[in-house]
Amino acid sequence: MPVAPLDLLDLDTLLTDEERDIRALCRRVADERVRPYVADWYENGATPVRDLALEFGKLGLLGMHLTGYGCAGANAVSYGLACMELEAADSGVRSLVSVQGSLAMFAIWKYGSDEQKQRWLPGMAAGELLGCFGLTEPDHGSDPATMSTRARRDGADWVLSGGKMWITNAPLADVAVIWARASDNVIGFAVPTDTPGFSAREIKHKMSLRASSTGEITLDEVRLPDSARLPGALGLKAPLSCLTEARFGIVWGALGAARDCVATAIDYAGSREQFGRPIAGFQLTQAKLADMALELQKGFLLALHLGRLRDSAGALRPEQVSVGKLNNVREAIKIARQCRTILGGNGISGEYPIMRHAANLESVLTYEGTSEIHQLVIGQKLTGLSAFAG
Hints:
By secondary structure, the chain is an alpha+beta fold. The protein has three domains: 5-125, Acyl-CoA dehydrogenase/oxidase, N-terminal domain (Butyryl-Coa Dehydrogenase, subunit A, domain 1, Orthogonal Bundle); 131-235, Butyryl-CoA Dehydrogenase, subunit A, domain 2 (Beta Barrel), CATH 2.40.110.10; 238-383, Up-down Bundle (Butyryl-CoA Dehydrogenase, subunit A, domain 3). Helices cover 52% and strands 16% of the residues. It is built from eleven helices and ten strands. The chain has helices spanning 17-33, 35-44, 49-58, 76-89, 91-111, 114-125, 237-271, 283-313, 318-343, 354-366, 371-383; strands at 131-134, 150-154, 157-168, 175-181, 186-192, 198-202, 214-225, 229-234, 273-274, 277-278. Strands 1-4-5-8 form a four-stranded mixed beta sheet. The relative contact order is 0.12.
């Protein structure tokens, strides 16, 4: 009897009962609440983000790896499995969860004041409040140290000026975590989006992540009290630590998209007949499926290893997460492209998820650190020499 792509090595035996239960819950909500509708969301570029956030909040999926303030306090592996199941439905839906929990909520949870945590985190965990994370700028992506957004003191207040680009959830957010350069360092703020001077417009005409809300933020002399500043965030290491947190979810999430592609290709190849028999019986098709299943197993073992390290040591080193993000996203996009060939012309149809996954993974490949950036992070660790500056 055939087995599922991730069942070749009985990898479920490496998970605890609780981890398997959380995975089953996330798979169920993805099957019931996302899969039947996501092709239309993608085609129309419109997703009921707030409704999804409320449902995910009720299930404890938002900020699920954080503790207190209504967060579930799940372990890293459970969070990773949740990301995998959500991204098996769509990368944009997983982005909603990871940006909310691993970027916006994590920044406030780790660097915010008690007042900020009490004000924002319970509502964000429940899905009643949406957050976004403003670091990337139109001219400053891979090199955030050169950001143009400025924060200057004006009496007891701060005034923010600048702009952020490609910010997930921005058009719908209630609070934006904004990073800006002050006179002597990079600092962060929890900015209510109804503050005068703050605006966010939806980015249209995307060819990828169309089931996700993406915006451009404009900060036009946004005046904030000092209580909006994240007191624990000083220096570029603060936002970069948030990116490391979010990249861990991507390590798992990309596997979900790849797994869904392989499962779709196997099902299609079993029913599609050419030359008098199913194409699943052809040697070249089986070679493709075998190679893709092999990379899935390896990627899962890598993600699981990083999760166990996180759960035992409490943190992962940036280069360790870079290894996972670089490998798993790179292999996932190869798998999506290969699966498309098995479906032939049907591979580009919205009736099947493969082309949607492939297009989404083009964004996942470059956001929160391009492949080149992760190669340089790993190269620096291997050689002790930085290649980031000329």
